[in-house]
Every structure is written in structure tokens, then in C-alpha cells.
Amino acid sequence: MYAVIKTGGKQYRVAPGEKLKIEQIPADIGSEIVLDQILMVADGEAVTVGTPLVSGATVKATVVAHGRGEKVQIFKMRRRKHYQKHQGHRQNYTEIRIDGIAAK
Hints:
Distance between the termini: 14 Å
Number of domains: 1
Family: Belongs to the bacterial ribosomal protein bL21 family.
Organism: Sulfuricella denitrificans (strain DSM 22764 / NBRC 105220 / skB26)
InterPro entries: bL21-like, bL21-like_sf, Ribosomal_bL21, Ribosomal_bL21_CS
């Protein structure tokens, strides 16, 4: 069984037992969260696709950790104009463990 969820402006394919890094959400470590924006649920051959969301479907997850991703280097340059700009960015994330998928 798996589901396609939407969180943080991105879509993820999740299955029970998986660990996943998503955009940071305000939740304590160890707390359970319920993700309710489910786009698709598949259980064997039975596939339910939402329009745009599957009504009544939820995914339960546990917050494992919070962290920051790898640094991304941004370098901008205009040739012959003596312009160079260096910049870096580290995105915050929340790591979750998928506990179960409930579809009605």
C-alpha cells in the first residue's frame, strides 16, 4: 500500500515504514502528525485518484528529527561588467516516519 501526499508545495510517494525529509513543519520531535492532503491511494490493484484530493484519506506520521540540509552555493556573474555575487542557502527540513495510511 502506498499514497501520494502533498506537503510544503511538493508531492511525495510514501509507504508505511518509510522515513522522509519534508519542508519544516512546527511539530515537536516524537509527536504524531496527520497529513490530510492525499492525492492518490493505491492498495494492490485498487487505485483511488482524487479530484484533486481523496476524501477521507489520511496518512499518520511521527516526527523523527528537525535539521538543515546541505549548503547550496549560488554564484551570479555578469561578464565584462565586474559583477560577481556569492551566496549560500541551507533549507530547514523535518524528518518524518510514515506509520500508516488510512483510506475510506
